[in-house]
Q: What sequence folds into this?
């Protein structure tokens, strides 16, 4: 019996070795990659999609088709680049890639992914060496990606002056540039020109106009704002002189929390008065806010270019205006989208040359703009915008502040939003609510 | 992973052994199947260990070993029928649990995603340019055999120029780009890209020991005397900054200088019980904990009680033989169970909307009251329990219907003879007998609701917020949703090690509660045996 078992085991070993040897020399097949990748995904799957993504949520997130789009006619041993892009940018990049291939014999594979998936997939794939060379993404991903060491520094060289300053600022983290911007987005004041004949230039003016419109019974709400959403509240806060994080030479300073600064509390007090006077109502979410505007029940709101298609479809008259100021001009958060190069790219110089020579051109930037019209970060294209709506958004964002990408921002959103909700619900005084929020944020940042 | 599991499960299809012992044919089958499994397993293991996923590799290795034992040892062979189940149990249940526990003792998360060798390699690849160093423009030259490079370097202001080769450097006349360098021919910008020279050029060091040039890996056509920024000191496991001379030593997975400055990224490392200490000593976590804990218990109890009461009532009503359309009603009542919570909760949220919701408008019209379903702490809780009742009663209805039909009828006859009324019969017979069967399911339902993140998150993310707490917390937050906030709003991105520690803590709390509950149901059972 014992003998037989020994023979069996040796036969088994030989068999399994033969079997194991067969696929071994080949490149790891896609099937092989799957289980390997499966392991790390398990943990990061719990990754939160933090609130900052809320606004860009309107971003088209198509079903990711993981098929490279422009690989045809590419020699096997030629140098190659892989780009991860979302479904609106991917076709543009594919055609740019094709001309890069035709001119230099460099294969460019564009993999289409949902915009929101790119960051998390990149975090998993990049360290294994199987990630892309270039990704498309939003500047507020920098905090995560740079602290994880996944991005390569960039240098725009001679093209530096071709880009909007504020957009470049967005891609600077700890004093270094990590991306090449292609578009910016920000909120502006959208109003119904049939109701609002003269756009208020201050928030006090908004209060007065709202009171008048409501008293005359023209609309239910002169100005409508969604509850507990700091992203849409921030321009009001800056108009009153408030801020979130102080700014130093190298970017935002997590030690300087401005949620309880004098200006921020003034803005909170304005909000409280609006709620008390019945001009702003509790429990309004993003969808309700827009629906009310589209129905003609509200005359003014703060929203971004992502609301344009549905607003046009609703048939309601609308126009875009600069955000009202108060003690100073309002500054909305600026979201910047751009290209980033992986720190694990096998050929970073090629990747950056592709971006500088082929993407940072008026032609490509125009194509990216045409595929999804939002204010371009490339000045030559931005200057040519003639759509009045986009011009309105671009003007409102001219002095915008890049949304902080430092990791500390994660601890800001929920405390800040809660403070706003407490005011909407009238459960706390405005100054107390914002002071408490600032304390919560400081505690979270200091906690090690 | 799916493939591996399936193929392993295939092992169960090996022919059964006859009573007298394995036939030759069955042995051949068995061994072929096993060999295929082992082949795949070894290949998988090779892949995993070479990718550094050793934890999963270990789990799969153990599973493979067990399968081999089962199929080779006669006395273990009967286990083959449950071997697919065992394999799945290990890979899909035990491994993730152990991995979570392991993660709780590491610093895994944003800032600490990479392994130490990866971080060392990344840092060693960083370069810097000394203050005042010139960024030269270059023309690259390639040797006729295509293996060696040379550079013609010229300062942008035209003040100096060099011909740099691997190991030598000589001055040249600025302004005149040589047509060739010792037979090396110039590469046009396009040639560099076309030939895949970008990778190779970046890797070469030009010039002599005194002045060493490297081409920029960011801008084509630029080169300079780049220097390596960090050097890894292997014997003391430290990083030296060649620019400032600061030596960074590892502190819990982060290279830290004496002045407290750190290098990013950090790397994964086991940090012992630090995550648990953070959890216990963090006042921001501790203070709201009691309030959240009480509501969690309250929510779980209320959910179980309301759904059980509603389910039982309906089950008894529909159990009456004279009820018409019995089957139709029973089917209809299961509908809320068949609709995913991800659809029905948002619908409820819409119906309850305080401004425009149908229910709100209805209540306003009929009773003239406006109920703040989301803004008021108590009403938000009521709303959640009501929505959860809608989601949960069909399950209770289902199990109660089954359990009722299994109750012996003779006891009821005896009760009839004794003159017991309907309530007495329910209290003395139906309920106690039912609880024996249904009791463990109620405990399970309690445990489920204790961790029912989905409904809290879909209803209103734990809102309305509490005022004056040291960390953001809502009145309807339960432990899981609250800890989720704590773990992911810590200001350091996704802190998975900390999150895992919290999960382990919740698990322990739940174990204690469940243990007491089972004690209680056992008591019920003993009592009913004495009836």
A:
């Amino acid at each position: 019996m014992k003998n037989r078992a020994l023979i069996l085991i040796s036969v088994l070993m030989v068999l399994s070795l033969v079997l194991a040897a067969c696929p071994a020399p080949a490149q790891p097949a896609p099937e092989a990659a799957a289980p390997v990748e499966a392991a790390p995904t398990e943990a990061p799957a719990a990754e939160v999609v933090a609130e900052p993504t809320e606004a860009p949520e309107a971003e088209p997130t198509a079903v990711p088709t993981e098929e490279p789009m422009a690989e045809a006619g590419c020699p096997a041993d030629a140098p190659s680049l892989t780009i991860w892009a979302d479904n609106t940018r991917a076709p543009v990049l594919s055609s740019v890639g094709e001309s890069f291939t035709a001119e230099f014999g460099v294969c460019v594979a564009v993999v289409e992914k949902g915009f929101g998936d790119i960051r998390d997939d990149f975090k998993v794939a990049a360290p294994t060496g199987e990630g892309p060379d270039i990704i498309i993404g939003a500047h507020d991903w920098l905090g995560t990606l740079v602290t994880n060491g996944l991005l390569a520094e960039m240098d725009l060289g001679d093209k530096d002056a071709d880009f909007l300053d504020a957009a470049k600022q967005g891609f600077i983290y700890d004093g270094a540039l990590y991306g090449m911007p292609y578009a910016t987005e920000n909120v502006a004041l959208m109003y119904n020109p049939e109701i609002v004949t003269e756009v208020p230039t201050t928030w006090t003016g908004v209060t007065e106009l709202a009171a008048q419109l409501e008293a005359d019974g023209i609309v239910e709400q002169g100005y409508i704002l969604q509850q507990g959403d700091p992203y849409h509240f921030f321009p009001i806060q800056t108009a009153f002189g408030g801020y979130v994080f102080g700014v130093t030479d190298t970017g935002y300073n997590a030690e300087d929390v401005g949620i309880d600064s004098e200006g921020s509390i003034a803005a909170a007090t304005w909000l409280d008065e609006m709620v008390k006077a019945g001009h702003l109502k509790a429990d309004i979410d993003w969808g309700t806010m827009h629906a009310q505007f589209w129905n003609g029940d509200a005359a003014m709101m703060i929203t971004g270019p992502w609301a344009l298609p549905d607003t046009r479809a609703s048939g309601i008259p609308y126009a875009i205006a600069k955000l009202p100021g108060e003690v100073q001009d309002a500054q909305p958060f600026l979201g910047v989208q751009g290209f980033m190069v992986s720190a694990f790219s096998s050929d970073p110089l090629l990747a950056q040359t592709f971006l500088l020579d082929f993407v940072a051109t008026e032609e490509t930037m125009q194509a990216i703009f045409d595929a999804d019209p939002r204010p371009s970060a490339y000045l030559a294209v931005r200057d040519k915008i003639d759509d009045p709506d986009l011009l309105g958004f671009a003007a409102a964002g001219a002095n915008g502040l890049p949304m902080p990408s430092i990791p500390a921002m994660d601890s800001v959103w929920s405390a800040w939003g809660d403070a706003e909700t407490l005011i909407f619900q009238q459960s706390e005084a405005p100054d107390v609510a914002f002071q408490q929020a600032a304390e919560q944020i400081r505690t979270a940042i200091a906690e090690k | 992973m799916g493939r591996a599991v399936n193929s392993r499960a295939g092992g169960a299809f090996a022919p059964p052994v006859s009573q007298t012992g394995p036939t030759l044919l069955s042995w051949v089958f068995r061994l072929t199947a096993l060999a295929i499994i082992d082949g795949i397993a070894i290949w998988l293991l090779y892949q995993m260990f070479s990718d550094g996923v050793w934890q999963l590799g270990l789990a799969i290795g153990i599973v493979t070993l067990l399968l081999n034992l089962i199929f080779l040892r006669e006395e273990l062979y009967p286990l083959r029928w449950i071997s697919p189940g065992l394999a799945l149990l290990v890979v899909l249940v035990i491994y993730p649990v152990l991995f979570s526990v392991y993660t709780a003792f590491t610093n895994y998360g944003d800032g600490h995603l990479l392994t130490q060798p990866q971080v060392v390699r990344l840092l060693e690849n960083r370069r810097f340019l000394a203050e005042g160093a010139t960024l030269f423009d270059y023309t690259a030259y390639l040797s006729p055999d295509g293996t060696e490079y040379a550079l013609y370097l010229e300062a942008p202001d035209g003040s100096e120029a060099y011909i740099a080769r691997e190991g030598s450097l000589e001055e040249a006349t600025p302004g005149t780009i040589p047509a060739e360098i010792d037979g090396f021919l110039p590469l046009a910008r396009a040639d560099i890209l076309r030939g895949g020279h970008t990778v190779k050029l970046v890797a070469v060091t030009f010039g002599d020991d005194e002045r060493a040039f490297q081409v920029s890996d960011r801008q084509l056509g630029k080169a300079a005397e780049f220097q390596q920024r960090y050097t890894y000191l292997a014997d003391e496991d430290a990083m030296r900054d060649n620019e400032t001379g600061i030596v960074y030593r590892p502190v819990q997975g982060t290279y830290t200088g004496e002045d407290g400055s750190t290098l990013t990224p950090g790397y994964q490392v086991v940090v012992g019980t630090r995550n648990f200490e953070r959890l216990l000593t963090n006042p921001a976590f501790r203070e709201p904990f009691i309030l959240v804990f009480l509501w969690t218990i309250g929510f779980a109890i209320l959910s179980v009680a309301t759904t059980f009461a509603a389910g039982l009532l309906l089950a008894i009503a529909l159990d009456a033989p004279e009820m018409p359309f019995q089957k139709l009603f029973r089917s209809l009542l299961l509908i809320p169970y068949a609709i995913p919570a991800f659809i029905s909760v948002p619908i409820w949220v819409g119906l309850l909307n305080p401004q425009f919701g149908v229910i709100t408008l209805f209540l306003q019209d009929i009773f003239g009251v406006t109920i703040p379903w989301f803004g008021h702490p108590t009403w938000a809780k009521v709303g959640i329990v009501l929505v959860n009742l809608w989601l949960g009663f069909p399950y209770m209805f289902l199990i109660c219907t089954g359990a009722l039909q299994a109750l012996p009828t003779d006891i009821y006859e005896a009760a009839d003879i004794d003159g017991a009324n309907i309530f007495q019969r329910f209290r003395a017979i139906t309920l106690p007998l039912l609880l024996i069967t249904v009791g463990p399911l109620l405990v399970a339902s309690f445990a489920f609701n204790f961790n029912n993140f989905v409904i809290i998150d879909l209803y209103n993310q734990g809102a309305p917020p509490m005022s004056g707490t040291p960390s953001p917390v809502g009145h309807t937050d339960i432990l899981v949703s609250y800890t989720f906030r704590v773990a992911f709003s810590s200001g350091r991105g996704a802190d998975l090690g900390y999150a895992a520690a919290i999960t382990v803590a919740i698990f322990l709390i739940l174990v204690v509660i469940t243990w007491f509950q089972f004690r209680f149901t056992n008591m019920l059972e003993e009592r009913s045996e004495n009836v």
